[in-house]
Request: fold
Amino acid sequence: MPAAHESPAHLKGIVPPKLLSRRALEELGSLQASVRELAHGRNMAFRIFTASRFVAIASAQREFWLEFAWLDQEYRYAVRRLAQFCQHHRNAPDAR
Reply:
């Protein structure tokens, strides 16, 4: 049994969470909302594209594919921005 002042082995190396400033929390919320909104549009476009394979002519399928590809690119960019925000605030000093 570890002494009272020692950390259990499974907790060694775990860094306690940092508190975010109000501004950072607002930015995080905005980034998360953007990812959720874009994910919804991307998923709908993908469903339409996959359904079009059986009922639409080739030119329409191409349009549905381009719509999905555009939304997918926007979604991936939003996810990247959210990941960069998290990485920045993980490495930044505590900003209370």
Observations:
- The chain is about 70% helix and 0% strand.
